[in-house]
Write a structure and sequence with these properties.
Elements (H helix, E strand, L loop, with lengths): L4 H24 L5 H20 L9 H12 L2
Helix pairs in contact: 1-2, 1-3
Length: 76
C-alpha cells in the first residue's frame, strides 16, 4: 500500500504548520527546538514526497483544491 500524494501533501502542510508555534515557543523560552525541528522535517519530507510522486508536480494554486479533495474523500 502506498501513500496517496494528495494526502501526503495535506498531512505535510498541516504538520509543518502546527510545528511553527512550537518552534516559536521554544525559542522564546531559550530552549533548543529539537522536537519542533523534527516535526518540520517530517512535514517537509511528506511535502517533498507528494511533489515528487504526483505526475506534473504541485503548484501553489493547486494546494487549496487538494485540501478540499482530501477532506471530501476521507471525511464522511
Amino acid at each position: 500500500m502506498t501513500l496517496d500524494p494528495d494526502l501526503a501533501l495535506v498531512l505535510g502542510v498541516i504538520i509543518a504548520a502546527f510545528s511553527i508555534p512550537s518552534i516559536l515557543s521554544a525559542l522564546s523560552d531559550k530552549r533548543a527546538p529539537r522536537a519542533s525541528m523534527l516535526t518540520i522535517l517530517i512535514g517537509g519530507g511528506l511535502i517533498l514526497f507528494a511533489i515528487q510522486n504526483k505526475p506534473g508536480g504541485v503548484t501553489l494554486d493547486q494546494i487549496p483544491d487538494t485540501f478540499v479533495k482530501v477532506v471530501a474523500r476521507y471525511l464522511p
